[in-house]
Amino acid sequence: METVEQIRERLLARFPAAHVTLVTNPGAAAEHSLLLDAAHAHDLALFLRDDPAQRLDYCSNATGVDWPDKEITDVVKTTVPDPAGGPPKIVEQKTTHVQPGCLEVVYHLYSMALKHGPVIIRLRTANRSDQVALPSLTPVWRSCDFQEREIFDLYGIVFERHPDLRRLLMWDEFKDHPMRKDYVEPDDYEWEPTAHGAVLERAKAHLPPPPTPPAKEAKP
Amino acid sequence: MSDSAPSPAPAPFPAAGNISDADREELRRHGILMTSLEELYNWGRSNSIWPLQFGLACCAIEMIAAATARFDIARFGAEIFRPSPRQADLMIVSGTVTKKMAPLVVRLWNQMPEPKYCIAMGACAISGGPFKQGYNVLKGIDRFIPVDIYIPGCPPRPEALLNGLIQLQQKIKGEKLSGPDAARHTRPEEPSEFPIPAYGAHDLEPTKNPAVWSPPTPPPSA
In chain B, at which end, N or C, are there fewer CB atoms within 10 A of the end residue's CB? Predict the structure, then answer.
């Protein structure tokens, strides 16, 4: 089986206009993946499926990832020479910038014919609010059908050209996307006889006010 | 009868209605069966509880196991799982009730004819279990319909389900058909149907039926 880098070069040789980025995994598993651009994702996926060297004919898993906006602090250290002749000072200059978030879909591809895999591909939306459409890969791998519906349900990624894009787990009237990081759950906590710490804290806001202690009778 | 010389009064002949169990047993040994219509009616009902055939999660596997030959729920006359709520006496809520499923469970309950009984089987049906406070799990089916028997367990063994069934049989056998403490299904003012919650934008609406269920209150010392 070719490495991910080789697959990337093969894809770029076939589709020069496409953008394929290598996303490395720094962990011990080192399962690197390929970030495909949404515009060419369908063609790239078809190529991966039908290319005789790859034959990635089975998508075992599709899952969503929510990347919220992330504030990154850059620390720039500059050495300022001391005018008095002492040792030079090191001045830290901190700047923060916000890395915009996105929604991501990850597909794990295997080849049943050639018995290799997985090859991991990713798709990312432009942002998390209004540009959340991605091309559906269900026309390429039929096994993505329910999984993309679940991602649409829980993350709110709209899969274009999906044959039957409806909510899977929640009801149609439901407005939220529960797997997003900024999902606010209904605050319906109640007192429980055997509550553990977190539930007890949340339930305190809903407890009835403690009864006022009866006024002490003044002793004659 | 004088006060100074008390003599043991002869016991009155037991009239129907206040005959003791020991006396009836004595009569039965002599080949005389004494019963009441209420008792006969409850005896028949309690030995032919037909459950509604539906399962929600892994507890349903244990319910199926209870129906097989090894545990044999037929010993208690409850083996006839009816595929229609119109023919069922008992709803075994066996498993996690998701918020998406809850209106359908309440609708099935409303479609069952009286007298009907409900068993909440397993931690999820009782309180939501390990999924309590999850965004998609109802925190107990007793928020919408009245539950007669709670069977704890995750999931309960088939023996536990059978024990719950026996408890329900004893409850049915003790039901009165008239009088101030008559059974629920004999009182016309008691509701037989319950409001079905609607699918809301964030949760079920309403999240509970206050006429059926109210949250537990902390003890005064807390």
Answer: N
